[in-house]
Amino acid sequence: YGQRALWAYQIETLKYWASMVDGFRCDVAPLVPLDFWKTARRQVEEVRPGCIWLAETVEPSFITFLRRAGYDCLSDSQAYEAFDICYDYDIYHTFRDCLEGKLPLEQYAQALNRQETTYPGNYVKLRCLENHDQLRAAFLLPDQGALLNWTAFLFFLKGTALIYGGQEAGCTHLPSLFDRDPVDWSGPDRSELFRRLCAFKKNPLLTDSVFQVRALPHGVLYGTHFSGQRRLVGVFSTRGTQELVSVDVPDGIYTDLFSGGNVEVKHGKLSCQGRPVAVETAE
Q1: pLDDT tens-digit readout, 223-250
Q2: Distance between terminal CA atoms of the chain?
Q3: CA distances from 281 to 83, 88, 142, 261, 270 (A)
Q4: Would you list the DSSP string of 123-168?
Q5: How many C-beta neighbours within 10 Å does residue 74 have?
Q6: CA separation for the pair 185, 208 (Å, rounded)
Q7: Cβ atoms of residues 58 and 28 within 8 Å
Q8: What stretch of H or E contains 110?
Q9: What is the pTM of this model?
């Protein structure tokens, strides 16, 4: 990328494809100069207004390694100058360490909260439980209750939820990147769950909000989206167990936005019955 002729060639190629596609996922984007991405974005916009730019940003340890080796490597904060969406790899290792019992759940909650102050107010993260480089969620979380709660939490987070091919079938096998390795569709069909979660994801409170989450005893994550006078509150039992949770919600009967059923808050307490719960309320 020290050769400007390469920039011109790459951008012309991007413009060609932009006439046919909605956006680009850019592999290991932090290793390419930021000025190139900014220039490419400006020119592609002329062909595809509103083109979506997704950066496969990298883990903090990889950034440090590359910089020590003398390479330029963009942080996520820098990548947001050119990209709409960045990978969630800045905190994915914390998520995995919590699942494996190496770290308390509170550290994952703290990592999520730091994103709210580290990145621009309109930041978008690509949230995933699994992808082409990571172990399958059903492999990491063999308990079905835990898997359900973590899957719902994925869609509750601020950002874009990634559904990796076969995740809706509960696949445990991580496919090869370079060889034919078909998805095994014989597993449990979770398509209806993902349809409900995708519909839930359209709630504007999940986008135009300030997000906070905290870890409660017994593996419960308690998240809140704040937007004006409205709040969206979510309770997730990451162990899939029934828990009685103190919530910042007035007493009453609410519609659970995940299941469509009713859930009651009494004396500031809510029973999650081992399933994820989300309710919308005023301040």
Answers
A1: 999 999 999 999 999 999 999 999 999 9
A2: 51
A3: 33, 29, 33, 16, 14
A4: --EEE-S--TTS--HHHH--SHHHHHHHHHHHHHSSSEE---TTGG
A5: 24
A6: 36
A7: yes
A8: helix 105-118
A9: 0.95
